[in-house]
Amino acid sequence: MKSFSDQASDMDFLTPGSDAQDIADQLRQIVSPDQTRIVMREWSQSAAFNHLGLPAKYVLQQNIQNYQDISLAARYRLYEKVGFISPILMFSAPGPGMAAFAVSGLGTEQQQDAFFSRFQETLGWSCFAMTEPEQGSDAGAMETRASPVRNGYLISGRKMFIGNGMIADTGVVFARTAPGPLGINAFIFNPQVAEISRYALELNGLKGTNLAHIEFNDVFIPEENMLGRHLKPTERFAKSAIATFDALRPCVGALALGVARRALHEWQSHLQLTVSQSAWLSQTERRWLAVYHHALRSCQQTDDKQPPDSHPGMVKTSCVILADEIISWLIHDTPAGNMPLLNKLWQAFRDVKAFEYTEGTRQIHRLNQGFSRRQRMSTCL
């Protein structure tokens, strides 16, 4: 008897291609970051993902799946379905990525043209350089500096856990131009200039993802590459980093739910379930669907410009906690001798653990939720 874990939750939305699993398996085996480009160019859906988040006016090819200018709810659904195949596909895919949110929210027409046009006809990779080795994603404690010089800025500092940082052609970096929260600004930059050093990070979870440690050594950024110069300082940060994180945190949760659904699929396919296991599976399916639709509702509310019922960070946290719990239970309930299944489940376990640190840990989100709640109460009072 088939269950929800045997098929995608939105059959009409994404056709990942029959080669998707093979491409994901190849990505997990790469030994050099440059191999990512070679492997991804072979994927039948790479051109579609290259346009994910691309404003519609920049799309020249009309014979590919329509992912440009995608809504947050649609992105959430897409991430879950890719997570079911392999989250490596999403983390290694070409496209404007997280940087697109900052450029769309802060960039002038000229800056948007320069940034997005590179994704029109050829595959390109981008990065979003904010997290730091010592400060994490705490923007208030950011140490990377952008010192004003003639016609631009010199950026010095270190960034950590930068997705696609080893292969990115372009990106957005956050640096401090002055003390305090209003002194943080975003800049479009070229990750491949000589003054930038990039180091690949060794991974257990999400193996094959090109996470990087990036060092900026007096990197010159032209003045015209500073985003949001036409906006008030109070508008800049809210429209860049905060908006990006709030938008994508539920999508990270969707990836985790996709991994959990795949683990359930593998477990159910390899075992003859007992009565108690079948009862647990039915209960777990209901819990999974409840969390999935709760997060989807949050995305739809954001699309409708309504305050979401739940803090975006806590939406992501709820998804990851449930996925972690499901996969852990499956591992403990699988016979020790069934190594093919256990290998798949342990891979899922490592991947889901990595999501805990993607877009902030659960403890950070709990603190943010508590702080936001106190702010609302003070406003009401």
Automatic annotation (TrEMBL):
Sequence ranges assigned to domain Acyl-CoA oxidase/dehydrogenase middle in this UniProt record: 127-219
Domain of life: Bacteria
CDD domains assigned: ACAD (cd00567)
Name of protein: Acyl-CoA dehydrogenase
Organism of this sequence: Rahnella perminowiae
